[in-house]
Write a structure and sequence with these properties.
single chain, three-stranded mixed beta sheet
């Protein structure tokens, strides 16, 4: 693949990832100007907690790419563990790709734990009082409807 067409392939992949971020309702996402080589690091400028490094290459160099994502997270003043490597399986087509994300194990476990934690961990007196006021208001409305 010619260098220019390889760059365009990478840009198309970064744009597609940003469109998916927006489609999921995670806020605005655009390609980073200079794609990580400028002051802003990473390949996607967005509201996520992770620096995103996107790769769409014929040969997977996972160790090299992880090192790059970590280095960019550190250089970009991110939390050194808040990086995500997004790459397309080269065996799949651009029109129907298999896309994978690699992150630090402990960050992954934190994400899982965050989804498992109850919204209210301990009884909250103010919340209990508000619920009792709501119940009272509902009872009053129900009496009027009868």
């Amino acid at each position: 693949m010619k260098p220019k067409s390889a760059q365009n392939k990478g840009k198309r992949f970064e744009t597609a990832i940003n469109k998916e971020i927006e489609a999921m309702g995670l806020g605005r996402a655009i390609r980073t100007p200079g794609s990580g080589s400028g002051k802003i690091k990473g390949d996607s400028f967005n509201n996520l907690d992770f620096l995103l490094e996107c790769k769409n290459q014929k040969i997977i160099h996972i160790k090299k790419w992880i090192d790059q994502a970590k280095d960019q997270a550190i250089q970009g003043n991110w939390d050194r563990d808040k990086w995500a490597l997004i790459f397309q399986d080269p065996r799949t087509s651009e029109s129907n790709p298999s896309i994978y994300v690699t992150i630090d194990l402990w960050e992954f476990l934190k994400l899982l734990k965050k989804n498992k934690d109850p919204l209210i961990k301990t009884p909250d007196k103010n919340f209990k009082w508000e619920l009792e006021r709501l119940r009272s208001a509902i009872n009053t409305v129900m009496k009027r409807l009868k």
